[in-house]
UniProtKB/TrEMBL annotation:
The protein, known as: Uncharacterized protein
Length: 434
């Protein structure tokens, strides 16, 4: 049965007069090595730290054979061990491995530990094995076929890229190096805090200016991710985010090419803004918040909510005949229509236009008898229509009341009020501005 209690972490405790053997010093080294490797693996994960690029050798000549090397650098393998390449390493060293064929290969670098060094003269015991005084931490480079199994067992190493082997007069030749499969070290942390903290009043970030020049020097108090970042979890930026090269937002200096009067006014402290120097590709949906309505809207609805809406329509107004001749001697009628803007909110005054489009007259005989005789009608006959004298308060939907006035009215021979028009038709246009 497996021991449910994990092995305790122990380190040596020294005191005067303590008797120490070689395994005590080995335990001391093991304690530091294992904890360091555990820290490497759990905190920094595994991968390339720096360098270890597959590059063309200086020995290569134009028109002649090409030679490639792995540049100096450092990596952490999948068990937390450090792999250090102190000088360029020629890939020619691995071209004599058995079983190579003309195909694509993954280039792997693995940790390798070898014993070296001998005791000083006079201290070597002829009957004891493994008396080397040093362990050299080096590396070994292997080629693994892209397709099919390799001849080398998994070494928990780090992949540096892919190359193609071709046959040449000098044997196997390396060509077409690619950076595919390279993995870089990371960090496992719930928060990352830049070491150079600054006071809010001395914050150098300016959303309108080139706060981060193209020279790309780090700002005090800011986290720089260079050259790239790949995240599988959640990222919270409490201040501002800049993607790509910085650029100016100018709403004040008209002499500059970057001037635009449409920019908002930025009032410190500036937080929650994003500047993107190139294209934005969105595979999901876009939702924008409209503070006037307090609602979130999809992209189409959001754009529609920012665009003025013109609503038009027609209505018929019946003219009401008064029982007696009023003062002034006119007859009128009204109609109320509901006009919906389809906007989430309207913040500016409405623009309303009403026009007369059609008149429904009484029969010609009555018209001729009562209005076309000068003795009967002493003033000019008029027909007018009008919308509200004062636009109603802004609202997504309104009740639009339109009135029509006809006059003058007259009394016929029987002293009955006569109106020459039964009804009028009007057209209306309402402009809603968000």
């Amino acid at each position: 049965m497996a021991n449910p209690v994990p092995n305790p972490v122990q380190r040596l405790r020294y005191f005067d007069g303590e008797y120490l053997r070689s395994y005590d010093f080995t335990d001391e080294q093991s304690y530091h090595i294992e904890l360091r490797r555990l820290m490497n693996l759990k905190l920094h994960l595994h991968g390339i730290i720096e360098g270890l690029e597959i590059t063309l050798d200086a020995d290569s000549v134009s028109g002649g054979p090409s030679f490639y090397s792995i540049t100096e650098g450092m990596a952490i393998d999948r068990t937390g061990r450090e792999i250090i390449v102190p000088a360029p390493y020629s890939l020619t060293n691995v071209l004599t491995a058995p079983g190579l064929t003309a195909q694509d290969y993954e280039v792997w670098i693995c940790y390798q530990e070898t014993q070296t060094g001998l005791p000083a003269a006079g201290y070597l015991d002829c009957n004891v094995k493994n008396q080397n005084t040093r362990l050299q931490e080096g590396f070994q480079v292997y080629l693994k076929p892209v397709n099919g199994p390799g001849l080398v067992a998994d070494c928990s190493g780090v992949q540096l890229g892919i190359i193609t082997l071709t046959s040449s007069s000098l044997g196997w030749a390396v060509s077409n190096p690619r950076r595919w499969g390279r993995r870089y070290v990371g960090v496992r942390a719930q928060s990352v805090i830049a070491p150079d903290q600054i006071d809010a009043e001395n914050d150098p970030f300016d959303i309108t200016a080139l706060t981060t020049p193209v020279t790309d020097h780090p700002l005090a108090g800011y986290l720089d991710i260079h050259p790239g970042a790949f995240d599988r979890g959640n990222v919270i930026v409490r201040k501002n985010l800049l993607v790509g090269d910085d650029f100016v937002l100018n709403s004040s200096d008209k002499s500059k090419v970057s001037y635009s009067a449409n920019l908002p006014t930025f009032t410190p402290p500036i937080t929650g803004d994003v500047k993107i120097s190139n294209d934005l590709f969105l595979q999901g949906n876009f939702y924008g918040y409209n503070p006037a309505s307090g609602q979130w809207y999809g992209l189409q609805q959001y754009i529609q909510g920012l665009t003025p809406v013109v609503q038009t329509g027609n209505a018929s107004i019946t003219i009401t005949v008064p029982g007696a001749v009023p003062s002034p001697p006119v007859a009128s009628g009204t109609v109320t229509v509901v006009v919906n803007s389809m906007l989430p909110a309207v913040t500016k005054p409405l623009q309303i236009l009403v026009a007369l489009t059609e008149i429904d007259w009484v029969d010609p005989k009555t018209l001729e008898t009562d209005w076309l005789k000068p003795a009967t009608v002493t003033s000019q006959f008029t027909v007018s229509v009008a919308g509200p004298s004062i636009p109603p308060p802004p609202a997504p939907s309104i009740n639009l009341t339109i009135s029509a006035t006809v006059g003058p009215v007259v009394l016929d021979s029987s002293s009955v009020v006569q109106v020459p028009i039964k009804s009028v038709s009007v057209s209306y246009m309402v402009v809603f501005t968000p």
